């Protein structure tokens, strides 16, 4: 069996972890990245330059550049140490107190190339070529998106929800997120991302900030349609623990229920969870039923870095390899 074509959907640190893991399996990895960040450097750039937020795109590119040691012998014509240096450079944030303070080098480079070429996809592809990256990074949409959420627990009556707008506001507002929407409501998909999903052998969604990095991928109608019609094997990787701000107090089962509530027609083949997050017994049986709503089978394994709520890339790669290779 040759190297599979893998598409990884997500954003932020969760997608970085997935991309690192998938690079153990293949050189043919395409990252499809959310573009709703409105905080920090990305927020400043989208406000000042009217560009899609570059931060999560930069992180995905850095993840693909930082190839695991197991792939060092696959590099053709590019020094791995040099690529690692440039991956670190893209992630480096300017110090000081001036206008550049807090901006990562990669954000400025990507925003500048996008302005010069008039196309963020062309800018990402140019950086890929410059640094000899095997995979590809694509935005979920070519326009900057906003997240709008219905949040309860902010009023004296817990049944009343308040509408909160903006990814940072949603992540930091006290209360419980009930539902999220994208603005504009029918955002244009990235054609290259749709084509990558159609050509994929394996599609991986998650882990990541559930309401701002995972669920948005099923809220772009054209992308959801591509996922539904793709013949690729689809894997949903659930977070190791609830995330403060977005999913406080959420069980693993609750993560699945809210995703299904946002896209009940979305189907996956496998739901992957860490064994420590779901004890054996009745709770795991409930989780199996929740996975079945997606038409999926549940797979439980040791996936975490010991003592941390972080996926171990090699462990995740090993489990996903088994799912892809099974008949």
TrEMBL record:
One of its GO terms (cellular component) is cytoplasm. Keywords: Cytoplasm. It is found in: Cytoplasm. The keyword Ligase does not apply. One of its GO terms (biological process) is regulation of cell shape. CDD domains: YvcK_like. SUPFAM superfamilies: CofD-like. Its main location: cytoplasm. One of its GO terms (molecular function) is LPPG:FO 2-phospho-L-lactate transferase activity. Required for morphogenesis under gluconeogenic growth conditions. NCBIfam families: CofD_related. Belongs to the gluconeogenesis factor family. This is Putative gluconeogenesis factor.
